[in-house]
Amino acid sequence: MSATGRLRELATLFLRLGVIGFGGPAAHIALTRRELVVQRKWMDDAEFMEMVGVTNLIPGPNSTEMAMHIGSRRSGWRGLLVSGVAFIVPAVLIVGALAFAYERYGTNPLVFDLRYGILPVVIAIVAHALYGLGCSTLAAPGPAALALASGVLYLVGVNELAVLFVGGAVMAAVRAVSASGSSGRLGVAGGIGLVGAGFAQPDVLRIGLLFLRIGAVIYGSGYVLLAFLERELVHRYGWLSAEQLLDAVAVGQITPGPVFTTATFLGWQLHGPAGAAVATLGIFAPSFVFVSAISRVLPWMRRVPTLKAFVDGVTWCSLGLMGGVLIRLADAALFDFPTWSLGVAALLVLASTRINSAWVIVGGAMVGVLHAVLV
Asked: pTM here?
């Protein structure tokens, strides 16, 4: 296939995933795995999970960075840009439309919530992906034990980044001892710190700098993002009320694509379309830099035994973290007989057919529409 054809293929794939990508990073990764590993066979599960593990080590939205990493592997820096932008754009357009309606008409963002039908399907997609990844990646007792411990630590509240680094360090130490060599060390930058200067009013430049800082340093889930935004926008600068912030986070949760498009909604409330544009650019721009850098470093890491062991440990821990996320998602999404039935039915369809995940999501969305109309 020509270079242009590969870029077109990446754009089409990640635009579609951006449209149907409900449920957060674990769901996005599961959808991506079904497309790339199961259906297109661009890579195997081991390589896919290595990408997941390494991506978890850098700040920013993990699933978006996975799209960039895959694009980079497929078509170099052009593929990185095309895949990242294609995955982000659908969510930005949807969130921008909701921000306009919210500002102009005071529309409650939850009016557009179809999660009742979509989230049970998302649970099925993640569960099916975890089963496939676990069978191919955790064949030995050691990796399985490390993944299980990681999931338990996540569920009891241990920071995800700490779990990844400890798991990687354990495997690096084991490899170093078994090889009787000196232990390797991996240093990962903690991010860029742009010190806020007590901004008085939210003009375009200040909005862009603030969200650039957030995108450069933030790790973790949407809850971490919420805490960071609350501290900065509500308490430190007083640019928004707590209610406005919660509405923005709700929009990020109920729309497809990366949760970080919450920045688009917030930027619109602060400074209209220009604020939305600079906030979106600011929060996502660091990810393009980080993924480009780590894509260049990863081949070297694979050649150093201790560093490869570190990456292996991080990979297995990442699978455990996905299991922990699945348990929490299931607790929120499966709460009555219809949602349990829908989740089980979706899992059976995924396990017994090669149907594209998009159609399963569409079916869940139709159930969500019926529920919103009838209840």
From this structure: 0.72
